[in-house]
């Protein structure tokens, strides 16, 4: 077995008095695909936002690719450059064209020459099948296209890990599939992925393991087949009975 | 059932009501027109108050008669919707039309038909009742250039033409040069502007005679003060806005303190302090020109306002934009420069334009330190013993000047808004 690329040890986080994460222990190995599910407010999003330090944890240890997350800013930016993230609300930069969205960070953070960055970005956009939209602005695209553009933008940084924060929750049903297809392709290409989603079909298709969270705790973690076939925890059973 | 209210049309008999109604409206407007332009009053024989209100009453009846929810006639529907939807609005509509009609003859008489522009003494104006534009004509150079020596006015003109010329340089920057456009306008252009004004208008070298800033004035001084005010208060305000939202407590509280201090004091006291108090704190051999001190004071003052406007834009951006920029590995400055500020500044163009217009209109306040821009020169001209009694003409002239400048700025800001509009 290869080394763990993400290690979370006894991670705790509070928003004011409210504890969102309680003693989270999670290890993710390279090329593993983990799906995180659970009811809303259970801390799933906070969990993955802690991995690239969009949220700061207050107790415990998070090690990403051998670097411990702490207050040293430079380190954080280096780690963030290696961890791509796709958001529920796409969060494309509305003042830039799709191509500029994709090349902005490679050019200014990784110092890739503009030409090379654009070539690489076009390749990524082709992968998610919106190369023909490259010169348009985000506001002119459909939700599904925007989300795929956001995926391409993250991939342009050539990340080692990809985080997905409910990538299909803000989409119309007929657009969900095109985004999920792009994600499946990415999974097949061997990316390390942590996906917060309610799409259980996607979980069954690509996930190696499923993590079920409730009230800030990891209630159950199991191989995908086991998770759906015979969940152990009562809370998990209830959740699955409601969602499937 | 019989319709009791005879003034209320129905769709069946609307055609007749429309003829009578519009006839009455036209009569009422025509009556006011005759009264105002030709001094003819048909209803003279009626008692005073009825005579006075007669057109209004006739007009209201007329408007009442054509008011129908849906008449089928496009023009009538448009009128009913926008200016005749109830009796109060109908009354306001008529009043505005009547007032306009009543104001036009005296105003145009005073400003144009009975005005004087010939001659160059006060006596030339005594012939007619109207405005004395001769006064503006005679003092025109003073209003434009202040007490700047007449022989050197070309220096001011050349300097301004050069400034405008350099302002357009960015327009011709293409290809690789385009990356330096911001740098050019933020740093290089202000320096060029300062050099031009220093050597050309101020003089003192290259064989140009030195003209002290006390002699500067008029509209050219308005331009100089506004120009430097605008180009410097913007970047300073931007930094303060970022500072106020910073997570570093020292920077944050310095910014808050600065903004709240400058917003809390009146500009007139700031100007006064800059001119009277500030030199006391300087060592006796140090000297900063009064004009520079005043411009600096205006910059520091307006920057606080600009900062708050920009902060409004920063706060309007969704958190997701910050998240996305951070998740791509951008640090604070890259995030601000490439992602946050371009969007925030776009949002606050109307607010910035507002502040800039206020700055231009605040410039006359520099009279408190003895500098006379165009309104200051006006004060001087109006109290000149040879030209007493023409304050009205002067103020109208100044209003037109300021209005033209501000309207141009306002139009330009609208153009920018459209140019940078993006869909979210």
Write up this protein.
- With about 240 residues, chain A is of the alpha/beta class.
- Helix content of chain A is about 40%, strand content about 25%.
- Chain A contains nine helices and ten strands.
- In chain A, the strands form two sheets. A six-stranded mixed beta sheet of chain A has the order 6-7-8-3-9-10, sandwiched between helices. A four-stranded antiparallel beta sheet of chain A has the order 2-1-4-5, covered by helices on one side.
- Chain B has about 425 residues and is mostly helical.
- Helix content of chain B is about 70%, strand content about 0%.
- In chain B, helix 9 (about 220-245) packs across helix 12 (about 290-315), helix 10 (about 250-265) packs across helix 12 (about 290-315) and helix 12 (about 290-315) packs across helix 14 (about 330-345).
- The longest helix of chain B has 29 residues, at about 390-420.
- Chain B contains 17 helices and one strand.
- Chain B folds into two domains: about 1-115, no CATH class; about 135-150 and about 210-420, Orthogonal Bundle (MetI-like fold).
- Classes of the chains: A alpha/beta (about 240), B mainly alpha (about 425).
- The interface of A and B includes residues 49 and 150 of A.
């Amino acid at each position: 077995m290869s080394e763990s690329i993400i290690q979370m040890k006894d991670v705790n986080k509070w928003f004011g008095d409210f504890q969102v994460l309680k003693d989270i222990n999670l290890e993710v190995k390279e090329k593993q695909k983990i799906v995180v599910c659970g009811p809303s407010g259970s801390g799933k999003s906070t969990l993955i936002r802690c991995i690239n330090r969009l949220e700061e944890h207050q107790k415990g240890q998070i090690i990403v690719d051998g670097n411990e997350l702490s207050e040293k800013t430079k380190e954080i930016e280096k780690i963030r450059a290696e961890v791509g993230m796709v958001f529920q609300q796409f969060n494309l930069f509305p003042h830039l064209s799709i191509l500029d969205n994709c090349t902005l960070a490679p050019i200014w953070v990784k110092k890739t020459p503009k030409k090379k960055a654009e070539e690489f970005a076009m390749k990524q956009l082709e992968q998610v099948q919106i190369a023909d939209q490259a010169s348009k602005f985000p506001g002119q695209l459909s939700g599904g296209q925007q989300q795929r553009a956001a995926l391409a933008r993250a991939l342009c940084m050539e990340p080692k890990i990809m985080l997905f924060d409910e990538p299909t929750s803000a989409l119309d049903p007929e657009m969900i599939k095109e985004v999920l297809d792009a994600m499946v392709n990415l999974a097949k290409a061997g990316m390390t992925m942590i996906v917060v989603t309610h799409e259980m079909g996607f979980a069954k298709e690509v996930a190696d393991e499923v993590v079920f969270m409730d009230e800030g705790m990891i209630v159950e973690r199991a191989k995908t087949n086991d998770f759906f076939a015979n969940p152990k925890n009562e809370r998990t059973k209830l959740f699955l009975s409601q969602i499937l | 059932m019989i319709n009791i209210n005879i003034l209320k049309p129905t769709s069946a008999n609307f055609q007749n009501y429309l003829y009578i109604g519009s006839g009455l409206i036209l009569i009422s407007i025509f009556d006011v027109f005759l009264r105002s332009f030709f001094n003819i009053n048909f209803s003279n024989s009626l008692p005073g108050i009825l005579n006075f209100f007669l057109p209004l009453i006739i007009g209201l009846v007329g408007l009442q008669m054509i008011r129908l929810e849906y008449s089928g006639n496009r023009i009538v529907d448009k009128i009913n919707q926008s200016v005749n939807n109830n009796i109060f609005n109908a009354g306001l509509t008529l009043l505005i039309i009547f007032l306009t009609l009543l104001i036009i003859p005296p105003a145009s008489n005073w400003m144009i038909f009975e005005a004087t522009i010939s001659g160059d003494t006060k006596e030339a104006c005594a012939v007619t009742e109207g405005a004395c534009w001769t006064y503006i004509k005679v003092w025109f150079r003073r209003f434009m250039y202040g007490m700047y020596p007449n022989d050197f006015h070309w220096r001011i003109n050349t300097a301004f033409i050069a400034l405008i010329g350099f302002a357009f340089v960015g327009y011709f920057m293409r290809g690789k040069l385009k990356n330096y456009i911001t740098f050019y306008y933020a740093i290089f252009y202000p320096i060029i502007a300062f050099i031009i004004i220093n050597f050309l208008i101020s003089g003192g070298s290259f064989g140009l005679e030195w003209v002290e800033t006390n002699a500067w004035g008029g509209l050219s001084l308005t331009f100089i003060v506004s120009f430097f005010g605008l180009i410097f208060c913007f970047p300073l305000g931007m930094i303060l806005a970022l500072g106020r939202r910073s997570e570093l407590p020292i920077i944050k509280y310095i910014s808050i303190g600065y903004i709240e201090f400058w917003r809390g004091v009146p500009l007139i006291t700031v100007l006064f302090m800059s001119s009277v108090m500030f030199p006391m704190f300087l060592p006796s051999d140090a000297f900063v020109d009064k004009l520079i001190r005043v411009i600096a004071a205006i910059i520091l003052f307006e920057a606080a306002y600009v900062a708050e406007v920009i902060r409004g834009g920063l706060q309007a951006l969704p958190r997701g934009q910050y998240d996305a920029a951070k998740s791509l590995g951008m640090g604070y400055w890259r995030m601000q420069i490439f992602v946050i500020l371009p969007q925030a500044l776009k949002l606050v163009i109307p607010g910035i334009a507002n502040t800039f217009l206020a700055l231009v209109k605040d410039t006359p306040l520099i009279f408190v330190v003895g500098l006379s821009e165009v309104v200051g020169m006006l004060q001087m001209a109006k109290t000149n013993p040879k030209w007493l009694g023409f304050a009205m003409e002067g103020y109208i002239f100044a209003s037109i000047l300021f209005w033209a400048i501000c309207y141009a700025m306002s139009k330009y800001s609208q153009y920018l808004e459209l140019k940078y509009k993006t869909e979210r």
